[in-house]
Amino acid sequence: MTEITATEREMGTAFLPRFDAQGLLIAIAVDSRTREILMVAYMDEAALAKTRETGLAHFHSRSRGKLWLKGETSGHFLRVEEIRVDCDQDALELRVRPEGPACHTGATSCFYRRLEGDGLERVEA
Amino acid sequence: MTEITATEREMGTAFLPRFDAQGLLIAIAVDSRTREILMVAYMDEAALAKTRETGLAHFHSRSRGKLWLKGETSGHFLRVEEIRVDCDQDALELRVRPEGPACHTGATSCFYRRLEGDGLERVEA
Protein backbone atom coordinates (compact mmCIF):
# COMPACT_ATOMS: atom_id res chain seq x y z
CA MET A 1 0.00 0.00 0.00
CA THR A 2 1.35 3.43 -0.88
CA GLU A 3 1.77 6.15 1.71
CA ILE A 4 -0.96 8.78 1.82
CA THR A 5 0.56 12.21 1.26
CA ALA A 6 -0.38 15.25 3.34
CA THR A 7 -1.73 16.92 0.20
CA GLU A 8 -4.04 14.02 -0.59
CA ARG A 9 -5.28 14.01 2.96
CA GLU A 10 -5.83 17.76 3.10
CA MET A 11 -7.06 18.64 -0.35
CA GLY A 12 -8.54 15.41 -1.63
CA THR A 13 -12.03 13.98 -1.72
CA ALA A 14 -11.11 10.66 -0.12
CA PHE A 15 -12.12 10.10 3.48
CA LEU A 16 -8.86 8.97 5.13
CA PRO A 17 -9.42 9.33 8.88
CA ARG A 18 -6.19 9.58 10.79
CA PHE A 19 -6.41 7.81 14.12
CA ASP A 20 -3.71 8.72 16.65
CA ALA A 21 -1.29 6.38 18.45
CA GLN A 22 -4.16 5.30 20.72
CA GLY A 23 -6.38 4.62 17.69
CA LEU A 24 -8.57 7.66 18.37
CA LEU A 25 -10.01 10.70 16.62
CA ILE A 26 -11.54 13.76 18.29
CA ALA A 27 -15.28 14.11 17.63
CA ILE A 28 -17.07 17.36 18.44
CA ALA A 29 -20.88 17.25 18.56
CA VAL A 30 -22.61 20.50 17.58
CA ASP A 31 -26.34 21.21 17.62
CA SER A 32 -27.20 21.63 13.93
CA ARG A 33 -29.84 24.24 14.72
CA THR A 34 -28.25 26.37 17.45
CA ARG A 35 -24.59 25.67 16.49
CA GLU A 36 -23.86 25.21 20.17
CA ILE A 37 -21.01 22.80 20.96
CA LEU A 38 -22.69 20.07 22.97
CA MET A 39 -19.82 17.77 23.87
CA VAL A 40 -16.48 16.45 22.73
CA ALA A 41 -15.29 12.86 22.94
CA TYR A 42 -13.14 10.33 21.14
CA MET A 43 -14.01 7.85 18.41
CA ASP A 44 -12.09 4.75 17.46
CA GLU A 45 -12.63 2.94 14.17
CA ALA A 46 -15.56 0.91 15.59
CA ALA A 47 -17.33 3.99 16.98
CA LEU A 48 -16.98 5.78 13.65
CA ALA A 49 -18.32 2.77 11.74
CA LYS A 50 -21.30 2.39 14.11
CA THR A 51 -22.06 6.10 13.89
CA ARG A 52 -22.10 5.99 10.09
CA GLU A 53 -24.13 2.79 10.05
CA THR A 54 -26.82 3.84 12.55
CA GLY A 55 -26.89 7.64 12.31
CA LEU A 56 -26.54 7.80 16.10
CA ALA A 57 -23.33 9.14 17.66
CA HIS A 58 -21.10 6.45 19.15
CA PHE A 59 -17.85 7.18 20.94
CA HIS A 60 -14.99 5.31 22.51
CA SER A 61 -14.87 5.68 26.27
CA ARG A 62 -11.25 6.00 27.34
CA SER A 63 -12.12 5.45 31.02
CA ARG A 64 -14.15 2.30 30.37
CA GLY A 65 -12.11 1.25 27.35
CA LYS A 66 -15.15 0.42 25.25
CA LEU A 67 -17.66 1.42 22.60
CA TRP A 68 -20.30 3.78 23.92
CA LEU A 69 -23.59 4.65 22.25
CA LYS A 70 -24.34 8.17 23.48
CA GLY A 71 -27.79 7.96 25.12
CA GLU A 72 -27.68 4.20 25.70
CA THR A 73 -28.74 4.69 29.34
CA SER A 74 -30.31 8.18 29.28
CA GLY A 75 -32.17 7.92 25.98
CA HIS A 76 -30.53 11.22 25.00
CA PHE A 77 -29.22 10.13 21.63
CA LEU A 78 -27.48 12.44 19.20
CA ARG A 79 -28.87 12.02 15.67
CA VAL A 80 -26.08 12.77 13.23
CA GLU A 81 -27.13 14.91 10.28
CA GLU A 82 -23.73 15.73 8.88
CA ILE A 83 -20.11 14.83 9.50
CA ARG A 84 -17.32 17.29 8.71
CA VAL A 85 -13.65 16.47 8.82
CA ASP A 86 -10.72 18.78 9.46
CA CYS A 87 -7.73 19.43 7.23
CA ASP A 88 -5.51 16.61 8.47
CA GLN A 89 -8.46 14.29 9.09
CA ASP A 90 -7.78 13.64 12.76
CA ALA A 91 -10.90 15.41 14.03
CA LEU A 92 -14.58 15.31 13.14
CA GLU A 93 -17.40 17.79 13.60
CA LEU A 94 -20.73 16.02 14.02
CA ARG A 95 -23.73 18.20 13.29
CA VAL A 96 -26.47 16.59 15.34
CA ARG A 97 -30.03 16.83 16.50
CA PRO A 98 -29.93 16.05 20.24
CA GLU A 99 -32.77 14.06 21.77
CA GLY A 100 -32.47 15.69 25.17
CA PRO A 101 -29.67 17.32 27.16
CA ALA A 102 -26.27 16.25 25.85
CA CYS A 103 -24.52 16.46 29.22
CA HIS A 104 -24.87 13.74 31.85
CA THR A 105 -25.34 16.56 34.40
CA GLY A 106 -28.62 17.49 32.70
CA ALA A 107 -27.22 20.59 30.99
CA THR A 108 -27.98 21.17 27.31
CA SER A 109 -24.25 21.33 26.62
CA CYS A 110 -21.26 20.10 28.59
CA PHE A 111 -19.75 23.58 28.21
CA TYR A 112 -21.96 25.28 30.82
CA ARG A 113 -19.27 27.25 32.64
CA ARG A 114 -16.90 29.97 31.57
CA LEU A 115 -13.63 31.08 33.04
CA GLU A 116 -14.08 34.37 34.90
CA GLY A 117 -10.88 35.55 36.57
CA ASP A 118 -9.50 32.46 38.28
CA GLY A 119 -12.84 30.74 38.81
CA LEU A 120 -15.78 29.42 36.83
CA GLU A 121 -19.13 31.04 36.30
CA ARG A 122 -22.21 29.16 35.18
CA VAL A 123 -23.60 30.42 31.86
CA GLU A 124 -26.79 29.78 30.04
CA ALA A 125 -25.73 28.52 26.65
CA MET B 1 -3.32 17.39 49.00
CA THR B 2 -6.85 16.05 49.00
CA GLU B 3 -8.36 14.34 46.00
CA ILE B 4 -10.71 16.44 43.87
CA THR B 5 -14.10 14.78 43.68
CA ALA B 6 -16.07 14.44 40.45
CA THR B 7 -18.83 16.59 41.95
CA GLU B 8 -16.43 19.43 42.76
CA ARG B 9 -15.00 19.25 39.27
CA GLU B 10 -18.39 19.15 37.58
CA MET B 11 -20.54 21.44 39.66
CA GLY B 12 -18.05 23.71 41.36
CA THR B 13 -16.73 27.18 40.58
CA ALA B 14 -13.06 26.22 40.82
CA PHE B 15 -11.11 25.90 37.58
CA LEU B 16 -9.47 22.47 37.90
CA PRO B 17 -8.32 21.55 34.39
CA ARG B 18 -7.83 17.83 33.98
CA PHE B 19 -4.86 17.08 31.75
CA ASP B 20 -4.76 13.54 30.37
CA ALA B 21 -1.93 11.00 30.68
CA GLN B 22 0.02 12.95 28.03
CA GLY B 23 -0.54 16.20 29.95
CA LEU B 24 -3.02 17.52 27.38
CA LEU B 25 -6.49 19.05 27.15
CA ILE B 26 -8.61 19.38 24.01
CA ALA B 27 -9.13 23.01 22.95
CA ILE B 28 -11.77 23.88 20.36
CA ALA B 29 -11.58 27.34 18.79
CA VAL B 30 -14.92 28.81 17.73
CA ASP B 31 -15.49 32.11 15.96
CA SER B 32 -17.33 34.21 18.58
CA ARG B 33 -19.37 35.97 15.91
CA THR B 34 -20.29 33.20 13.45
CA ARG B 35 -20.08 30.31 15.98
CA GLU B 36 -18.20 28.34 13.35
CA ILE B 37 -15.72 25.78 14.68
CA LEU B 38 -12.39 26.98 13.35
CA MET B 39 -9.95 24.35 14.57
CA VAL B 40 -9.25 21.89 17.32
CA ALA B 41 -5.90 21.22 18.95
CA TYR B 42 -4.30 20.29 22.25
CA MET B 43 -3.09 22.47 25.12
CA ASP B 44 -0.68 21.50 27.83
CA GLU B 45 -0.31 23.49 31.03
CA ALA B 46 2.17 25.92 29.44
CA ALA B 47 -0.09 26.58 26.42
CA LEU B 48 -3.05 27.25 28.69
CA ALA B 49 -1.02 29.60 30.89
CA LYS B 50 0.30 31.52 27.86
CA THR B 51 -3.18 31.77 26.36
CA ARG B 52 -4.58 33.21 29.59
CA GLU B 53 -1.63 35.56 29.99
CA THR B 54 -1.56 36.95 26.44
CA GLY B 55 -5.14 36.55 25.22
CA LEU B 56 -3.79 34.81 22.11
CA ALA B 57 -4.46 31.10 21.58
CA HIS B 58 -1.42 28.90 22.20
CA PHE B 59 -1.44 25.15 21.72
CA HIS B 60 0.86 22.21 22.23
CA SER B 61 2.03 20.66 18.98
CA ARG B 62 2.09 16.89 19.39
CA SER B 63 4.07 16.41 16.18
CA ARG B 64 6.74 18.97 17.07
CA GLY B 65 6.47 18.38 20.81
CA LYS B 66 6.45 22.08 21.67
CA LEU B 67 4.51 25.19 22.52
CA TRP B 68 2.92 26.79 19.51
CA LEU B 69 1.49 30.29 19.27
CA LYS B 70 -1.23 30.02 16.65
CA GLY B 71 -0.37 32.60 13.99
CA GLU B 72 3.33 32.84 14.90
CA THR B 73 4.34 32.40 11.26
CA SER B 74 1.14 33.35 9.39
CA GLY B 75 0.10 36.32 11.55
CA HIS B 76 -3.33 34.70 11.78
CA PHE B 77 -3.70 34.89 15.54
CA LEU B 78 -6.80 33.86 17.41
CA ARG B 79 -7.78 36.50 20.00
CA VAL B 80 -9.49 34.73 22.86
CA GLU B 81 -12.60 36.48 24.14
CA GLU B 82 -13.98 33.77 26.38
CA ILE B 83 -12.95 30.34 27.62
CA ARG B 84 -15.57 27.72 28.46
CA VAL B 85 -14.82 24.42 30.14
CA ASP B 86 -16.73 21.17 29.91
CA CYS B 87 -18.26 19.14 32.74
CA ASP B 88 -15.20 17.05 33.61
CA GLN B 89 -12.79 19.87 32.76
CA ASP B 90 -10.75 17.98 30.18
CA ALA B 91 -11.83 20.13 27.23
CA LEU B 92 -12.03 23.86 26.55
CA GLU B 93 -14.07 25.91 24.13
CA LEU B 94 -12.24 29.08 23.12
CA ARG B 95 -14.48 31.78 21.74
CA VAL B 96 -12.16 33.76 19.54
CA ARG B 97 -11.86 36.57 17.05
CA PRO B 98 -9.67 35.21 14.25
CA GLU B 99 -7.19 37.53 12.56
CA GLY B 100 -7.35 35.76 9.21
CA PRO B 101 -8.09 32.22 8.06
CA ALA B 102 -7.70 29.73 10.90
CA CYS B 103 -6.57 26.86 8.69
CA HIS B 104 -3.03 26.60 7.34
CA THR B 105 -4.60 25.69 3.96
CA GLY B 106 -6.10 29.19 3.74
CA ALA B 107 -9.63 28.08 4.60
CA THR B 108 -11.60 30.06 7.18
CA SER B 109 -12.09 26.88 9.18
CA CYS B 110 -10.21 23.57 9.17
CA PHE B 111 -13.59 21.81 8.80
CA TYR B 112 -14.06 22.64 5.11
CA ARG B 113 -15.19 19.23 3.90
CA ARG B 114 -18.15 17.04 4.75
CA LEU B 115 -18.64 13.34 4.39
CA GLU B 116 -20.91 12.59 1.45
CA GLY B 117 -21.37 8.87 0.88
CA ASP B 118 -17.88 7.43 1.13
CA GLY B 119 -16.07 10.54 -0.01
CA LEU B 120 -15.59 14.15 0.97
CA GLU B 121 -17.22 17.20 -0.50
CA ARG B 122 -15.92 20.72 -0.09
CA VAL B 123 -18.36 23.03 1.67
CA GLU B 124 -18.42 26.72 2.18
CA ALA B 125 -18.62 27.19 5.92
UniProtKB/TrEMBL annotation, chains A, B:
Binding site for Zn(2+): 87, 103, 110
Swiss-Prot/TrEMBL keywords: Amino-acid biosynthesis, Cytoplasm, Histidine biosynthesis, Hydrolase, Magnesium, Metal-binding, Zinc
Superkingdom classification of source: Bacteria
Pathway membership, UniProt: Amino-acid biosynthesis; L-histidine biosynthesis; L-histidine from 5-phospho-alpha-D-ribose 1-diphosphate: step 3/9
Domain Phosphoribosyl-AMP cyclohydrolase: 39-112
Residues that coordinate or bind Mg(2+): 86, 88, 90
Transit peptide as UniProt keyword: no
InterPro entries assigned to the protein according to its UniProt record, in alphabetical order: PRA-CH (IPR026660), PRib_AMP_CycHydrolase_dom (IPR002496), PRib_AMP_CycHydrolase_sf (IPR038019)
The EC number(s) this enzyme carries: 3.5.4.19
Location in the cell: Cytoplasm
Transmembrane intervals: none
Cofactors that this protein relies on: Mg(2+); Zn(2+)
Main location: cytoplasm
Catalytic reaction equation(s): 1-(5-phospho-beta-D-ribosyl)-5'-AMP + H2O = 1-(5-phospho-beta-D-ribosyl)-5-[(5-phospho-beta-D-ribosylamino)methylideneamino]imidazole-4-carboxamide
Keyword Protease listed: no
Cofactor comment text: Binds 1 Mg(2+) ion per subunit. Binds 1 zinc ion per subunit.
Family, per entry: Belongs to the PRA-CH family.
Role this protein plays: Catalyzes the hydrolysis of the adenine ring of phosphoribosyl-AMP.
Subunit field text: Homodimer.
Protein name: Phosphoribosyl-AMP cyclohydrolase
